[in-house]
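SEVERITY: medium
COMPONENT: batch folding queue
REPORTER: lab tech (J.R.)

DESCRIPTION
The queue accepted two submissions in a row. Attaching both inputs and their returned structure tokens so the on-call engineer can compare them side by side.

ATTACHMENT 1
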Amino acid sequence: MELLNQLNTQLRALDERSLIRKRRTVDTPCGPRVSVGGRELLAFCSNDYLGLANHPRIVAALQEGAALYGAGSGASHLISGHSRAHAQLEERLAGFVGEHLEAPRALYFCTGYMANLAVLTGLTAGDKNSDIFSESLNHASLIDGARLSRTNVKVYPHADLEALAALLAASTAATKVVVTDSVFSMDGDLAPLPELLALCERHGAWLVVDDAHGFGALGANGHGALEHFKLRSPYLVYMGTLGKAAGVGGAFVAAHEIVIETLIQKARPYIFTTAAAPALAHALLTSLDIIEGPDGVARRAHLRTLVAQLDAGLRLERWRRMASATAIQPIVIGDNAETMRAGAALYEQGLWVGAIRPPTVPAGTARLRVTLSAGHTGAEVAQLITALNALERA
């Protein structure tokens, strides 16, 4: 069949460039040690930054939520799918980051991807008198949300405040939206949020912050990048995911109550999606308790210690460790095939590290994406350091 032959040719072309992606089936809960095909691996590839994905209190809360609310919601939020658990979670999340916003309200989504599509399409809704200013290293969900907005999209270079300032000054749009990751998922560095917010306030623009990799992991209380930078502004629109440091699933958008009401009325990814299982929302209430409590404080401190240990222990000559103070610790190799070989060699040693290639990262910057978790021990990180140092010199 010719159509299948066309697809197969495309797949072969990907394989020739070492760009084929493959799934591995995990037989155990998410954690530092997992089982794949009967083999135990030490995993440095999940986004479970605080080690909460299999926390017994959260697991018990999920079971309790299923007993209270059943397995599914049965409808979208605007029909009959908005449960008491969803309402309680949204109220709690609004309070969680509310000190950084004016008249805060929160809206829960099934995934961070859906949340980002909703924000960027909901704030602009195809209005040609709107401009979106998108960071060049933004996550795919932000890129897709900007494209789906059907409005003007201008991309500014990574962390280039001067370039963004020039774009904002030249814009005559009635609605301006600057959108950025807080922690860049493949680089691990932080966006200059205080400076970005100052520009947005000066030019009357919204600042949409995707804090997928900061929520729970940054800030004294785990409230994320806004707490880390001590920001507060009515211009802020904040997105946090709940399947990474929070250990469960879904995402939320928090902003002024008028912004949230606008999303409820206009954002198609919210309106036309079946609500997430209420049991997840119920479990997340316990997750938030842990993040804010003494255990969360201790986990973030331990994570910082592991980051410092990795930084001090790596002795790389050919490869390049990107500067990062977050749980995301990329090691740039460059060549796709060499990156795949390095990932496979680590896997053979029982160490599972993500091998990231284009188009996820720019051509020529393929890398090992090491992610640390508060669930890791110092001894486990030492094992990884030894393996990486030896592999680079092999």
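ATTACHMENT 2
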Amino acid sequence: MSAIEMVEQDSTSSDNDCRPAFKYLIVIEPLGFLYGSAGKFLSPENLVGRSGSSFPPHTAALSGLFAAHYKGNMDYLKKLQLAGPFWACSKNPQNFYVPTPFNCLVKNDSIENLISWYKDSEATEGKWLPSVVDKFDKGSWIAIRHWKRITLGNQQECQRIKVATPPWKYTPHLHPRLREDERIVNEDLARGSLFLENAVQLNPDACLIYLSNTKLPDAWYRFGGEGHMVDVKCIDLSPTVQNLLAQPVGKSFALITPAVWGSNRLSYREPVYLQKGNKEKYNGDHLESNEKKVWSVDALITERPIPFRYRLGNRDNREEGEHGQSDRQQPEESPKLLSRGRYAVPAGTVYVLKESINQSWQEWDDNWFPKEGPSLKRWGCGLALPLPSAFGCYRLPCSCSMTYEN
């Protein structure tokens, strides 16, 4: 079954009941370098260097391992659900690290301040307190076992939490092009025999972590843009983390994975439910009347959106012979099934809603998530964990929510 047929068959159902909750940790340890690019939008500065770097790989890359192993068996692929990326120390993968919420202001590898949203019942606008003007570190990660300490909302308790920096570094280097049938440099003068690879070196004591509800056999797999070899182990997810993921997100929550909201054409800061048959229209920074906001957001902390794109594999242009085998090889330059470029709300974004959501992320409606083939919820889009009701975000109330046009 081709990748296109699998996507079309899977897109016919969006029932949440067909996807069990997360039960496994997928632990990935590279056997050398990993590739650090993920099909960013093409631009002059993106042709070389690190402008197109994206690491760790999105869950769509991991989904390809499941598709290759189960070979189109829809009994497994239809209910597949993944989330990530995260990372952990190899000796303790259950205590994996997730992006630090943006309301935690980090300096010198510790949380220096914790800002909270305060709003009087009679006030029309709230405040983020304490008011802090300073420069703080970005891109930090926090251990999942510390999440409960954050939700207590105690300033002194949070200041004792140590955060971590990513355990990987980028190593651009020239890489030879190899022949398809043997490990010899391809001396094709038209294309050249070398290309610049933006590789990533992971600390030997660290591993990549993804959540899954479907088991993947332990083995060596080719993983990432250049198909580098990795050692994959599947272990049971601890009951403590399962209970945390099963908690309702409530009135305030933080994203631990990037979130793509909106449609194939427009990206928003929050989910937008489009009735079937409605045509989406863009009118400045506002939604048209036939577009309905899912949440009533009081305020949020976020940063600039990040490009989001994934690849679903080759189009199947081969012809089968008498015994079901291909009579001719697929061309080397065969077209790829590439998703539309979107903008994602970054992991760490914190939402404060006017009305509480009495559901865990697992129970959220598939209609809140965009679709291009499968629903993006299948890949853990916008996985959220609860925060205290006093937690909040800075900047502006979300009545001034912006829209990013692709």
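NOTES FROM REPORTER
The first strand starts at residue 24 and ends at 30.
No errors were logged for either attachment.
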